[in-house]
From TrEMBL:
Origin species: Janibacter indicus
Record pathway: Amino-acid degradation; L-histidine degradation into L-glutamate; N-formimidoyl-L-glutamate from L-histidine: step 1/3
Top-rank lineage group of the source organism: Bacteria
Catalytic activity of the protein: L-histidine = trans-urocanate + NH4(+)
Keyword field contains Transmembrane: no
The protein's name in its UniProt record: Histidine ammonia-lyase
Presence of the UniProt keyword Lyase in the record: yes
Cited Gene3D superfamilies: Fumarase/aspartase (Central domain), Fumarase/aspartase (N-terminal domain)
Gene name of this polypeptide: hutH
Gene Ontology molecular function, alphabetical: histidine ammonia-lyase activity
Amino acid sequence: MSTDTTTVVLGDRPLTIDEVVAVARQHAPVEISDAAWGRVREARTVIEGLAEDTVAHYGVSTGFGALATTHIPHDKRTQLQRSLVRSHAAGMGEAVEEEVVRALMLLRVQTLATGRTGVREETLRLYLALLQRGITPVVHEYGSLGCSGDLAPLSHCALVLMGEGDVVVDGTRQPAADALAAADLAPVELHEKEGLALINGTDGMLGMLCLAIHDLRRLLTTADIATAMSVEGLLGTDDVFAADLQALRPQPGQALSAANMRAVLSDSPIRDSHRDPAACTRVQDAYSLRCAPQVHGGARDTVEHAATIAGHELASAIDNPVVTLDGRVESNGNFHGAPVAYVLDFLAIVAADVASMSERRTDRFLDVKRSNGLPPFLADDPGTDSGLMIAQYTAAGMVSEMKRLAAPASVDSIPSSAMQEDHVSMGWAGARKLRRSVDALARVVAVELHTAARGIALRAPLRPAPATAAVIDALATHGRTEPGPDRFAAPDLAAAHLAVVDGSVLAAAESATGPLA
């Protein structure tokens, strides 16, 4: 059932990243415009005309991939499409997340609705109905090379249209045939070209890119908040975040991050306690404090570059062959996932680097030689208590994993289909590792927030900035942040993570600062 009342209408304009997220996660309702249905019917007429042609047409009267020169007689063409989907639904491993499959489905429906693929109206209506009814095909972790599209993942979805394979409905896995029958939906028999139209696109990797961009935008702002709190708790300076200093290097993301940090630190009694140069002998803070706008800003700019690429892809009609605007049916290479694969790799790199800097700030709080007067490991009774020592271990372990995940997938092409598909993007693999990296980034930032909250509490009776106080209160509604004897640490860290991913930290800071970038 939908939890979002805003209907996403396909066919008149490209989707936005936020719309992809709304359909994937909140089950926002989806419709196709009347104009788009007209284009779908027109394109199908073109394909049906080619079905009777004596000239071979790829995917209509021929085999696929390295078998493209094999002519298929008319009486075997429905079997051709059925065999294509069955053979290509060859995924293995665990089922991927529902939100990923829903994003993939939405993007394939959007391409089908462009009228450039030649799919039949009844086939598209059934695909749309799966989204609308919350019937989610089971798609597996492994199977896509990111060229000729996400073939195996999309084939598992296409299989459901034929009444085969498995689906998940309301969290329960069941045979597709049973789910269709329960929803009063009839499977379709695929006709000429439809098998290809259903499986030949970058929809899986693009869907995961959209989800990652959405999450990283919030996480990077949250990382700015965590940084400001660390600067405050470690008795650092916000002078280096001044707007005129940032303007000397006019990188757009850098300016936004610095402005966020200034806003969070505004009116901080802790900061004011050592603002007098005569009372503060430290000339410069460590890079993890001083250079945070530069690192976070570079990450922000990379995310926005990725969003530009995603926007281009969201405006695309990817299939092979494709029905052109003037009615030709032409082979092409638009299914190659390279543009998407590259930015998926870029984002894994910046996520790892932002997390690496966050973990370094956490570590500074715990080291008595670098924390400017805080107890070792922020422990209540150092020696008897270990404080947050192992929380830092956990963050460090995740950062090391993220560094491994930052190794690019897109340079690891491997030939397939008897050397017909001799260069592939590995975009699906890049997207899968990016999802793990984004999840880890949220957890690393949560550890920093939890650590900063405890460190700031230990600065009492000095009070923190209003924004910091609001964030600490928000963290406290999820779990415990106050200093004290050692306690079971994992629930507190899990609570901080929830406050990051549900937006509580950002909302709390903005209650004091106003909107942050």
